[in-house]
Structures are given as structure tokens and as C-alpha cells.
Amino acid sequence: MKLKWAYLAFLTGIAGLLAGCEPLLVLNPKGPQAETTANVIWLSIFTMSFIVVAVLVMLAVILFKYRASKQDPDYEPPHIEGNKYVEGIIVTIPILIVAFLSVVSTISTHQVESPPEGYSEDEPVVIYASSSNWKWHFSYPEQDIETVNYVFIPTNQNVEFRLYSHGTISSFWIPQLAGQKYAMADMTNYMNVVAEEPGEYMGRNSNFNGEGFAENEFTVTALPPSEFDSWVEDIHNTADPLTEEKFEELLEPGHLGQMTFTGTHLEFKPAPEGENSPHDHGGSSDSEENGGHHHH
């Protein structure tokens, strides 16, 4: 009886999930990294569904075939040794399932960690995405601009996000473009993202970090490269420069709308990129310290 209710609850949960107000963004990918993730999720769902269906069919057969019959009250069933074939099956199948999903996970993790196929030769567009309670700061060292709570990226180019935090650990996640990755205070993590279609995508912090967590979101707008370049030019013509005083003010806990500046905070507060950075080529610690300056 318990199993029946558990199964009904499971079906109701799945139905509720699939009939949500908005489509499952993670299963509607707009770039190669997210597509790999979506494919692995579908493969896992089908594998698990197959297991669930097989187990439930076996359960129904066994309950029907071996149900209690009208035996004499003093009937004693014969002693039976274990069946080596059944025991072999119940040990081998789970091992095969785990091995299969492990191989899939390893291959797909490697794929989403590397620049996507066809984009690895190009120089990536570098954007530093740093979090503070409860905002996201996007610094573009090459374009010499900075935005708060929104980011514009060119389509069909590898964008390398460099993630870190000015406080608590956050998790950077754009469901339609890439899986989540942590942003921490003392190190920089790297994430490659390619958007293959222009559009606006939701991004958010998926790691609980206090009372402002729910609104710790940002928008990602993918534009064709020429429109992206005009957007950068517009900012240089209209936005105010980011000063150290202003940046310290922005770091105060709280929520802000979208903001735009020329210059980046990397000039006076460099990212924590050190010898562990995959982009460190053995330079002296001085050159690392001034990492934020070399573009200006």
C-alpha cells in the first residue's frame, strides 16, 4: 500500500514539474555547453524510467505469481537454496547502470569544461563575473566597461567568464547556456559559454547565500557581434566612470537595479588570479598583482 502511494506521489510530482508555469529552461538549450547538459539529463531520465518500469513490472508479476494461496494452516514450504542466476543478475545490472552513467558523466563533464568544439582556436571574449550580496558585477577588461546585474555577450563566440566573489560563495548559472559553477572569494573559476542564438536569457545565483538570495539574478543578452560592438561604443559615449568610492558603495549588502559604467573595478581591486590560474604562464607575482591594469 505504501508503495502505491509513493508511486502516485512520484507521478504527481513529475506532472507538476512538467506542467510548471514556464518551460524547464535547462531542457531548452541555446548553446553547445547547455545542449550537452540537456542531453545527459534526458539520457539519465530515460535510463531511470527504464529501471522504474522494469522494477514495477517485476513487482506486479511476483506479487501475482507468488501471492498467498489456500494452503493448509500447517503447510511448511520446502527449503530452497539461493538461485545463483538471480543473484548474478541483481548484482550485475546495478554495476552496469552505474558504470554507464559514470562514463557518460565523465565524458560530458570534460566537454562542458573545455571550450566548445569549433571555438577553441579563437581568442575568447573575457568577462569577469564577480558576486557581492546580492548583486553580480560584470567587468570587461578588453572593452573597458563594467555592468551590474546584466551582461551582454556576442553570439557564436566563446565567452570566458572568470568567476569570483567579494563575499559569500555564490553559484553562477545560466540554465540555457551553461551549468552552474561556484564563485568564491580567494580564487577564480573559469567557465566557457557560447550562445548560438541572439536572445535574452535568465541567469542566477543557485547557491543559498542569505536573505537576498531569491533576487540574486541577472540577465544575459546575446547580440550579433556588430550590435555588441555598437553597444560597447554607446556605453563609452554615455556612462560615467567607475570610481573606487562608487564601487565600495556598490559592494554594500542589498539589491540594486541594472547599472553601467566605463572602466572596471579590476584596476583598483584585481581578481584573485594567482599561480593556480590556468592562464598563468609563470610570470612574476608583480605582473599577477597588476593583472587588472595591462589592458588599459
Commentary on this structure:
The protein folds into two domains: 24-65 and 83-113; 125-275 and 284-289, Cupredoxins -  blue copper proteins (Immunoglobulin-like), CATH 2.60.40. The protein has helices at 2-18, 32-65, 84-113, 225-238, 244-251, 285-289; strands at 125-132, 135-140, 145-148, 150-154, 159-165, 170-174, 178-183, 189-193, 199-205, 217-223, 240-241, 259-262. It is 36% helix and 22% strand. It has 296 residues and is of the alpha+beta class. Mean pLDDT is 86; it is low at 280-296. The chain starts with a helix and ends in a 7-residue tail after the last helix.
Shape: elongated
Unreliable spans are: 280-296
How many structural units, i.e. domains? 2
Q: What is the number of strand segments?
A: 12
Q: What order do the helices and strands follow?
A: HHHEEEEEEEEEEHEHEH
Report the CATH architecture of the largest domain: Sandwich
Helix fraction bin:
25-40%
The main β sheet shows up as: 7 strands, mixed
The CATH first-level class of the largest domain comes to Mainly Beta
Task: Give a brief rundown of this model.
The chain has helices spanning 2-18, 32-65, 84-113, 225-238, 244-251, 285-289, and strands at 125-132, 135-140, 145-148, 150-154, 159-165, 170-174, 178-183, 189-193, 199-205, 217-223, 240-241, 259-262. The chain is α+β, with helices and mostly antiparallel strands.
